[in-house]
């Protein structure tokens, strides 16, 4: 809670306002607050008409819809559901015969700096051939396909090809473990995995294919019939005969035409797993029609995308940001985009700035964690400071994934944006499909650290536990009161969990609960996100459940008796993972504690992935519990932050362990 309190305090002191410059406003799609307000009004007064007009104008339908919103089975909302379309056709085919067809769709920069690019016309050929290759493997409409790929043109092609044949993809981030992959394959009932032999990051060659093999070997993956392997490097890999095929093998002789398969608007385009309050990740299911509509519209509204723009979203395709703002949105908008394989700090921490100069990037979209780490790097080494590169091509900057602290915002504004570029601090989630609360570059006066106002048609509010609206200035829970086209449709295979997680009974069962705390400023009613209100942590903009990490720790059954995980604020990563562990043997100290902590970190990396490694691990003979046996997490949060314990500990069974747990290793 004190984390939220700190943020609320900084809202109250933050009084710098940056109105849009004439340059940003002139020619913008939504120019000025009057234009924004008019759209909001239109959505409020004629909700269905508003969305219907947008969907007709922005998407190509093979069969037009006649129903806009079906609310007969709340909260299983259905949008445009008797309409039919194809997502890939809306990204590629729609540009053929227009000036966009010969435009560069993707400029790819590899980890080692090599650049290649592909036009819309050629991308369509690549996607069509790959779609035919998938068909030749017996993969078709409704099948689920796992994609475990590096950031490459091939990764985007794989996603688009699945969409083209109506197969539902589920991309798993390349940093996740064999175990995580195994769980996702089983939960999705996937028939195939698309992967690469290796991925290149930061000058290192890291395995992917062998992790797929390990994941499948863990058992329960009988549904997998095919593993397709992109040979990203020349390094050898192990082939499982009868199951594995290379891209080259399946692409051989494939027709360059593949008619897009029309699917219903509600057909699941993809499932993307994300962390929730329990140990098991949730398969967030997205639709085709509503999702594609929002991917395109937010490119136009939030980024005000123009034909001459070079768009660069640094997110990996393994996350929702890489879905909406790499694989789908920019292509639907007919934009030129940069896709980057590597990491921001290799071969030096000026790589991003160098790439902006080199590719003349005009819209740059990244995460606060990246910005904070590059600030730190620039502070200690002048040579990687953005001032060393020509960033004058930039027009709009974006931030996503976690709250951006005002200091980082100001640095980004001055040193990257040259005090000229609006910063769109976009709030959204895997579940929302695209931006929901964000400034508009040509309209919204910016306040550092605030995601400002909801997009037109998004009925966001801040309420108490019963769903009652709270006044500006009062912190509460962020909700969205009406459905919107790109919202989550279901948790794959678990409709009950879907209802329980997002549409609480106490609020009437039809209000979307975001899981974040928020407060609106007293003067402008601007939203500021104060952090998750559930057991989800945000580490470097990546979502992880505390229960997920706890389950991983206690799965080390020979060593761990009990574990509790909490988050604590971290200057660089936003939040850091702090684990309190009780071992099955006596409490270790000194070097032994260090060594066991290192062992547990490696274990968690193997169970989930390196991003889930706890930063702090503390050992105790017990955990602080009430007499009824409940772990007092509030106390653990204070200890993790190094705060003095001021809470009432009279209900605590064993107060002496607080001292033990306060000791770091
Ligand atoms: C957080 C990422 C503050 C929030 C697109 C949310 C943010 C979670 C912002 C979703 C922002 C995302 N300001 N917090 N601009 N954007 N968040 O599903 O806690 O990976 O619930 O989607 O990130 O993370 P997810």
Short structural description:
Helix content is 32%, strand content 21%. The chain has 665 residues and is α/β, with parallel strands linked by helices.
What characteristics describe this protein?
alpha/beta; disordered N terminus; binds 5'-O-[(S)-ethoxy(hydroxy)phosphoryl]adenosine; Acetyl-coenzyme A synthetase; nucleotide-binding; 7-stranded mixed β-sheet; 32% helix; Ac_CoA_lig; ACAS_N; 5-stranded parallel β-sheet
Number of helices: 20
User: Which descriptor suits the 3D outline?
Assistant: globular
How much beta, percentage-wise? 15-25%
Radius of gyration: 24 Å
Mean pLDDT: 95
| Class by SSE composition | alpha/beta
Total strands: 30
- Proportion of residues in helical segments: 25-40%
The largest pleated sheet is described as: 7 strands, mixed
What compounds are bound to the protein? 5'-O-[(S)-ethoxy(hydroxy)phosphoryl]adenosine
Low-confidence stretches: 1-9
Keywords: Acetylation, ATP-binding, Ligase, Magnesium, Metal-binding, Nucleotide-binding
Binding site for Mg(2+): 554, 560
InterPro entries: Ac_CoA_lig, ACAS_N, AMP-bd_C, AMP-bd_C_sf, AMP-binding_CS, AMP-dep_synth/lig_dom, ANL_N_sf
GO molecular function: acetate-CoA ligase activity
